[in-house]
Amino acid sequence: MITKAPYRDSHGRRLSDYPQPSVAVDAAVLTVHDGALHVVLVQNDTGWRLPGTFVHEGETLAQAVLRSLRDKAGIEGLQPRQLHVFDEPDRDDRGWVISVAHLVVVPESSVTGAELTSVDAADGLVYDHATIIQLAVDTLRADYRASPDPEGLLGSEFTLLELLRLHEAIAGERLGKDTFRRHMIGQLVETDTYQHGVVGKPAKLYRRA
Amino acid sequence: MITKAPYRDSHGRRLSDYPQPSVAVDAAVLTVHDGALHVVLVQNDTGWRLPGTFVHEGETLAQAVLRSLRDKAGIEGLQPRQLHVFDEPDRDDRGWVISVAHLVVVPESSVTGAELTSVDAADGLVYDHATIIQLAVDTLRADYRASPDPEGLLGSEFTLLELLRLHEAIAGERLGKDTFRRHMIGQLVETDTYQHGVVGKPAKLYRRA
DNA sequence: TGCAAATAGATCACTTCTGATCAAATAGGA
DNA sequence: TCCTATTTGATCAGAAGTGATCTATTTGCA
To answer: Which one of B25, B81, B129, B176 has the fewest beta carbons within 10 angstroms of its own beta carbon?
Structure first.
């Protein structure tokens, strides 16, 4: 029962009387682990792949992604973002399937138990999943170039050094600390508290704007 | 006949035995007209909207977009680019329909006959079509910030002034000519020919890199 | 306690970028 | 023919940005 609506087109047919594709979602779940970007992979009978599922009726794509992460990788994700629709009609030999690739960014604490692979070492995946990872990484990098911590990976208060380390992990390269400080300070609100308990001059704590 | 493949899942069901959505495409066709960005709108019984259609079996999304433009607006498009999937299950009262929004950029000469509306004046549209236009404009602007003429709107050879006017039309604001020149020159190849027949010192003609 | 290592953040010289100015080159009209 | 308006593209001075240096402040260890 696909639709309860009494809709009929000019030929007296319902939408479901025409061929329809199955719609799947796949998610590149990225996290920062050990100073570098990692992606969550799962294994099924065909090899390593990104977690994914078919979209159920009455469900949005984002809901399908979150369900998939919960069921296949034990992850509580937050806000899936669409990356691309893979639509080659003969992409899947089970039939007509289009797949919507997503990016999900989570703090490392949310992915305990799942299999993490460095994004540089992720190859030999099924379908277009290596492409999806590349798209996801590029998107995440663009986000962090434009804003200090759009995905909220750092708690509510943090030092500029913590933010720098995060950006270096995401960018995959070292960033100049002086320029970084100057660019970030204008986009953050400073608190009147300082970090203590670590070696060095205490660093001011900042908050997202 | 959705699939000829003998695939059955572990419950003995084919993909088409599960509920599937109809998949539609909508396209924001942008062009530069009279020094400003315009979008192609079509009118049906529910009001003004972007051209769109349901995706047929065996067809990619891009093919569906191009078919829609040919049939509904008499436009020969080039390379549709995906923008976003609109997926609210009750978005369409005819049933479960997900819609993939696209951006198509064409030179003004390709849209003779279609109804052009300034992107600033496009409102009162059905569904999320105003949002799609905004997404399309933002995407196009980002493209032209990164590259001189990624959509090939200018012929193969052009002057820096022609390129500047194009960028101003797309950006929707005036751009400094000196900085513009400096940024662009490095991304173009100069020819040894000059523009003639217009007032002023002859301008060197450039080509895309 | 005192010294070494580490970090924060200010300051400085240097580089790069920007918009303004100006000379060169052309078309069109007086 | 000559003068004016217009545009190109180079040059220049000032603004903005960059990485290096230096000082202040803390922890950890001898």
So the answer is: B176
End-to-end, the C-alpha distance of chain A in Å comes to: 48
CATH 3.40.50.620 fits B157-208, yes or no: no
Q: Enumerate the residues of chain B whose CB falls inside 8 A of the CB of residue A15.
A: 22, 94-97
Indicate if CB(A152) is under 7 A from strand D. Answer: no
Contacts of A98 in chain B (CB under 8 A): 23, 61
- Stretch(es) of chain B classified as CATH 1.10.10.10: 157-208
| ipTM for this model | 0.91
pLDDT tens readout for residues B50-78: 999 999 999 999 999 999 999 999 998 78
How far is the C-alpha of A2 from the C-alpha of A49, rounded, in Å? 30
Task: Give the CA-to-C1' distance from A200 to D27 in angstroms.
Answer: 7
B149 touches B157 (CB < 8 A): no
- Which DSSP category does A32 fall into? E
Which tens digit of pLDDT belongs to each residue from A142-184? 999 999 999 999 999 999 999 999 999 999 999 999 999 999 9
Pairing of strands A22-33, A97-105: parallel
**Chain B contact for A96 (CB, 8 A cutoff):** yes
